[in-house]
Amino acid sequence: MNILILNGSPRPDGNTSAFVEAFTEGAESAGHKVKTVPVGNKRINGCLACEYCHTKGDGQCVQKDDMAEIYEAMKDTEMLLLASPVYYWSWSGQLQSAVSRFYTTGTINVKKSALILSSESPDVYDAPISQYHSILEYSGTQDMGVFTFHGEENKSKDALEKIREFGAGL
Asked: What is the pLDDT of residue 27?
């Protein structure tokens, strides 16, 4: 299976990146092809709602930024993994910008999806999980799992192993 990970963290050595690495190890050990796009370090603007993509652009966005890399990767993606730290009760702004740009394609064309969230606090996950489930409902994508980690769970041996096993079990 072709898996695309959108890593919303701008920190290459942060908690979210550790979970992305563990998932990748597990998924690749099971023979899956994994591509990670570090959206936290990309130049991706939010959707302008200009409708160019649906009128003159034939599905292409008028904006010329790093989102083009994600559009290209999405073409053969069968599973999408969104991974992000939780900043102020939502996933990162960088990930939000990328997700808002899915509007260009009209829908997420993947069959499966999962979500990994990391925070220092335990009670901050409701909004990003709700948004994730709304996206799945709209797109008809199968939910493969939601994983949340906070405080001392972040980068813990048990948490990383849980995500590694998740990837290997796909």
From this structure: 98
Give the type of residue at 27.
A
H or E segment at 112?
strand 112-119
**Cα–Cα distances in Å, from 106 out to 109, 132, 135, 148, 168?**
9, 16, 12, 28, 31
Burial class of residue 121, CB neighbours in 10 A (0-12, 13-18, 19+)? exposed
Q: Give the contacts of 165 (CB within 8 A, at least 6 positions apart).
A: 26
Residue 92, CA atoms < 13 Å, CB-side half-sphere: 25
Query: Looking at this protein, which amino acid is placed at residue 33?
Result: K
**Per-residue tokens: 80:** 């999408």
Name the region of 146 (left: φ>0; alpha: ψ -120 to 50; beta: rest).
beta
Q: How confident is the model at residue 148 (pLDDT cuts 50, 70, 90)?
A: very high
